[in-house]
Amino acid sequence: MQSTVYIIAVLCIIVFFAIKSTVYRIIHGSACCGERDAPVKKVKVKDKNKSHYVYSCTAYVEGMRCSNCARSVENALNSLDGIWAKANIEKKCVNILSKSLIDESLVISAVAKAGYTVLSFK
Description:
This protein is an alpha+beta fold. The chain has two domains: 1-30; 50-121, Alpha-Beta Plaits (2-Layer Sandwich). Helix content is 40%, strand content 20%. A four-stranded antiparallel beta sheet has the order 2-3-1-4, covered by helices on one side. β2 and β3 form a beta hairpin.
């Protein structure tokens, strides 16, 4: 009888922590990159008129696995003046639109500061 009470108590504790963890992930998001904080706020581009962006390229990025990773890469590039970036997790790439000729070293540097590596440009 006493062992049954201990087993039920342990199961209740396990269920409590499982529910707590699930609620935390729902509220704060879950990331493959180990971040347990709320998702980073998205950096929005001020000029959303695509006709102003005459140059484009695609950068293939190593390490982009989840929506938090994609948002980090997008934020790093969208914070640059005259750049509008949209990441694609499935293809592991970022489509970049620019108002001026795209400086690949600037893109590589911004992505590296976000913690990722540009493999190639197309």
